Amino acid sequence: MKKSNRNKILYLLTILVVLGGDLLTKTIVNHQMKVGASYELIENFFYFTNIHNTGAAWGIFAGHIEFFYVITIIAAIAIIYYFLHSNEDQAIFRYGLVLVFAGLLGNLYDRVIFKYVRDFIDFIIFGYDFPIFNVADMGVVIGMFLIIIDLLIGEYKQWKFNQSHPQ
Questions:
Q1: What is the pLDDT along the chain (167 residues), one digit of tens a residue?
Q2: Considering only CA atoms, which of 80, 91, 77, 83 is closest in space to residue 154?
Q3: Distance (Å, whole) CA 155 – CA 123
Q4: Which residues are catalytic?
Q5: Within 13 A of 53's CA, how many CA atoms are on the CB side?
Q6: Which residues pair with 46 in a beta bridge?
Q7: b/e 77-116 (16+ beta carbons within 10 angstroms → b)
Q8: Taking phi first (over 0 means left), then psi (-120 to 50 degrees means alpha), and beta for anything else, what does residue 115 get?
Q9: Do 30 and 119 meet the contact criterion of CB atoms below 8 Å apart?
Q10: In a 10 Å sphere around its CB, with 0-12 CB exposed, 13-18 middle and 19+ buried, how is residue 5 labelled?
Q11: Total Cβ atoms within 10 A of residue 71
């Protein structure tokens, strides 16, 4: 199988796993827990807490669903554009874009169908109650991390090149 076909299958599987995992876990939590209920998994650290978020992290822009539609459409167009204009050898960058896109789809689904995002993963880290999130959010954060790593690697390679080829 050609590398490009293998990569396309990997990208599609990633989208399906992140999106499917996101929607499945949200559905299970919504059917097993009332909104606002919390279940302790690891004492003072990890909980499942069922919330409906009409905003973004920390509840910012709560109630402004139209804003999120616009931002999501712009982000989706940008992701598709950068993916199509990237090279196959930019594997980390492309995989990051795929993860962000999959997460975007999971939260977009919730916003379109329910008018809020279903969040449930809840951590308290060093006494700080971190914003509650979901599998789609994990795809976005991990994808952005990969994109930043790829950009930093590119900058480092350029710096090394400039060091070995002074003007």
A1: 777 889 999 999 999 999 999 999 999 999 999 999 999 999 999 999 999 999 887 778 888 889 999 999 999 999 999 999 999 999 999 999 999 999 999 999 999 999 999 999 999 999 999 999 999 999 999 999 999 999 999 999 889 888 888 87
A2: 91
A3: 34
A4: 119, 137
A5: 23
A6: 42, 123
A7: eebeebbeeeeeebebbbbbbbbbbbbbbbbbbbbeeeeb
A8: left
A9: no
A10: exposed
A11: 14
- Please give the full DSSP string across 96-139, using - where no structure is assigned: HHHHHHHHHHHHHHHHHHHSSEEEEEEEEETTEEPPPB-HHHHH
Distance CA 13, CA 20 (A): 10
Is-contact 67 92, C-beta < 8 A? no
CB-based contact 88:7 (threshold 8 Å) = yes
How many residues in the chain? Answer: 167
* Helix, strand and coil in the chain, % to nearest 5: 65, 15, 20
φ/ψ bin of 136: left (φ > 0), alpha (ψ from -120 to 50), beta (otherwise) = alpha
